[in-house]
Every structure is written in C-alpha cells, then in structure tokens.
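Throughout our pipeline, every protein is held as a single compact record rather than as scattered files. Nothing more is needed to write down the fold, since each code stands for a local backbone conformation. The record that follows is passed on verbatim for readers who wish to inspect the format.
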Amino acid sequence: MRRGSDEFIGHGQNPHFKVFALNLPKNQLTQLTEDALDILFVRLVEEFGVKPEDCPIFYLYDRDVYSYKNNELKGKYVKKYTDPYGTENGDQGQLLLSYPAIESYLLSCIEDDAYNMSFLLGRDLKGVLANKIDPNNYEDKTDLHLKTIDLVFSNDKIEAEKRLIHSIDEMNNGLEFIGISEYDLDNLAPTLLEVYDCQQKKYKEKNVFSLISLVGMALLELGIIIESDEVS
C-alpha cells in the first residue's frame, strides 16, 4: 500500500492466520526506531488483539537510491534484525531486501531468469511489470494492481504454488549469480551484507541494481515452502 493510504490487513480462508502490512513513517531504515516499533506493537495489541511476541515479523526493505541514506544497511540494522520471532536481546523481526523494489518479488514469481535484469529505480521495474500484466497503456493504477495480484497470486491452488516455488528458484539463482551458493536462515545477516556489497559495486559501476528479492526467505522461514529431494 502507498504510504498515507489505508494499511493492509487480511487473511485467507483460515481465520487463525492473518497478515498485517504496516508502513513506517518514512521509507528509511533510520525510521526503524524502538519508539516506532513500540507504536506498531501497541496497535497490534489494542486494535487487533494480537500479541507481537507470538507473531513472526519481517521488515521489507525496498532499495531505492532516492529513499535511503548511505551505508544505512551496514551495521546495526542487518545484524540486529535477524530473527522474525525475536533474539535473546529482545530484537524482533527479520530484515529482507528487495532490489530495487518489492515489485522484484512479483516479477520473480512469473518471469524466468529475472535476476539477469537490472534497474535503477522501482518505477522502472513497475513499468516492466505493468507491461507484463497488460501490454496496453493502462492508466487505472488500482485496476492494474488488482490484475497484478490476480496474475501472480492465482486462485488456482496449483498455479499459486508453482509461482511461489518459482520465486524461490529465482531467488536462489539470483544469489548464486552474485556468488552466494549457501545461506543460513538462522543467521541471515552475512547473506544480506554480501548482497548489499555486490549491489553497491554494481551501482557504482553501472548505475543500476540486479533484480533480486529476498522476500522468499519469509516463505522458507515460515515453512510455507520446504526443501524436498523428491522429483515431481
């Protein structure tokens, strides 16, 4: 949801599982303060009757050169927010990156070898995604958004599963493409920092970022997708 608009709260057919997507005041990690999180947690308790300590929490970070501060990923944020259920220090949440925007995850669900694509800004990627959804010059952004959701998150269970798995394959291929062959869900900070360094290098050399999203890590962390040796 756009900042300043209504926030997303929804769940599927199972009433015991809900998803909350809440915006920080600004699109910067520097806004990820204890005060901001306290306000978020109070909302979860008072408005929705949910205990934050019982919820896996993920911080989705869109990497856009117009909305970040130099080296803000280095140091405390990546190393602090490493566990969606909380660390021994009480720091709850896992930081996940998307380059250059969250649309990179949507494209990775439906596009082969998306990691070979490069963009500078999220709006550049949005144009590619929009053309993928509807080749016509679509002006109704709300309708286009709904079409995107319908295409990526199909109501057909088998198709939906295929697209989620496809996003994981694209993520893994993208990590291997930049030289990361293994990662540890319980210690994701080194992977995040390595992705950051590789992307910084590409940005300095070519003024673009490789398209890659780590949102799929949440699916693996939650057990929605599990590794299997079975061949279908």
In short: The chain has a mean pLDDT of 81.
